Amino acid sequence: MxxxxxxxxxxxxxGVVGAACALALAGQGLQTxxxxxxxxVPWSRDKPDLRVYAFAADNALLFDSLGAWxxxxxxxxxxxxxxxxxxxxxxxxxxxxxxxLGRRELGxxxxxxxxxxxxxxxxxxxxxxxxxPARVEALQDDGDCVRLRLDDxxxxxxxxxxxxxxxxxSLRRLAxxxxxxxxxxxxxxxxxxxxxxxxxxxxxxxxxxxxxLALLPSAGGHCSIVWSLPDAEAAxxxxxxxxxxxxxxxxxxxxxxxxxxxxxxRAAFPLRRQLAREYVRGRVLVLGDAAHVVHPLAGQGxxxxxxxxxxxxxxxxxxxxxxxDWHAASRLARWARARRSEDTLAAHAFxxxxxxxxxxxxxxxxxxxxxxxxxGRVPPLSRALWRKAAGA
Length: 392
Ligand SMILES: Cc1cc2nc3c(=O)[nH]c(=O)nc-3n(C[C@H](O)[C@H](O)[C@H](O)COP(=O)(O)OP(=O)(O)OC[C@H]3O[C@@H](n4cnc5c(N)ncnc54)[C@H](O)[C@@H]3O)c2cc1C
Description:
The protein is α+β, with helices and mostly antiparallel strands. Helix content is about 35%, strand content about 30%. A hairpin with a 2-residue loop joins strand 18 (about 280) and strand 19 (about 285). Helix 1 (about 15-25) runs parallel beside helix 8 (about 300-320). It is globular and about 60 Å long.
C-alpha cells in the first residue's frame, strides 16, 4: 500500500459511539479521521426515531464535554424520574425514585437519530476529517502504525485504528479478532404507543415468561416500547393489526397504564450476547457494539459503548499529563483489560437476569419476587443498582 498522510487515529464507523469517539479524541488534540459508509439521516422533530436509549448520567457528562448535550436537551429528550420493575410470575416489585436518591432525574430517554445528528454537526469544527461514504477494505498492521485501504481507492495511515463499525464489524474481522456469540432466540420489538393513563415520567418494565416488556416515557406523552419476545412470537405480534397489537400489549403490560394504542410503525431487532475475545490487537482497538452486544433489558447497549469512549479519552489525557505515549501497548492493554472485564460482567449479568425471570423453575419463581422487592426497599441496594446503571 502507498503511504498516506499519517494520522493519530482513524475511527471506522460513525454511529453514536464512533462519532463520539472521534470527537473525544480530536478534543485531546489527536489528528482524527472518521470513516463511515452512509451519512446519518438528518433528525426530524416530526419523525420520532424508533430506536431510543435510556441515557445514563455519566454519558450526559461525556456529551456535555463534547459540546453536544445542550443541543440534545434543547431538541427533545424525556427525563425519567422513576423506575418500576415487576415480575409477572413471582410477584414482587422494584421501585426506584429520583427523589429518594436526591436526584432530579434518573436518566433521559433519547432518540438514537437525534444523538447522531448532534454529534455529526460538531465534527467539522472539531477538526475531524471525514471520509463518507467509504468503507475499509484492507488492513495492514506495521507494528508502529496501521494502514487502511478504503473502497474509494484512498489509503490512510494512523497510529491506531478504532473499530466502531457495529456488531458485524469489518475492521474487527480484518484484524482477526474473534467473537463469542450467544443467540438469545428473542427479538426486541420497538415502536411508540399512546397509553390511556400518563406515563408519570417513569420507565416501566414487566418481566414475562417470553422476556421483559419495557414502556419508556417519551416527550409529548407517548411511550416507546422494547418488547423482548421469542423469535416466532415477535414475528407474530409484528404481523398483527394495530388494534390486536394494542390489545396484546395492554394485556402483557398488566394494563398498568390502561388501554394501549400503537401510534407508529413497529420494528424488531435480534437479541444476542456477543463479546470480542480481544479489545486490542496490535494497532486495532474495538469498542461499542463491535466489542460487545448485550441484552437490552437494562438499557445499557449504547451506554457501555460510550463508557469505552470516555475511558479511552481519559487514557489519552493521562498519558499527556505524564508526558507518555498515549498509544503505548501497555496503556492500550490496560484500557482493554478494564473495559473488557466491565463489559463481560454486564453482558453476562443481563443474560442471567433474563434467564432467571424467564425460568419456570419453582425455586427461581419463588425467590425472584421477594428479591426484586427487597432491592427496591433497601435504600443502599437501590442506590447501588441505580449508580451502576448510571455510571455514577
Ligand atoms: C434496530 C436496532 C434497534 C436497537 N434498539 C435499541 C434500544 O431500544 N435500546 C438499546 O439500548 N439498544 C438498542 N440497540 C442497540 C444499540 O443501537 C447499539 O448498542 C448502539 O447503536 C451501538 O452503537 P455503535 O456506534 O457501537 O454501533 P452502530 O450503531 O451499529 O454503528 C456502527 C456504524 O458503523 C458503520 N459501519 C458499518 N460497517 C462499516 C464499515 N465496513 N466501514 C465503516 N463503517 C461501517 C455503520 O454504518 C454505523 O454507522 C438497537 C440496535 C438495533 C440494530
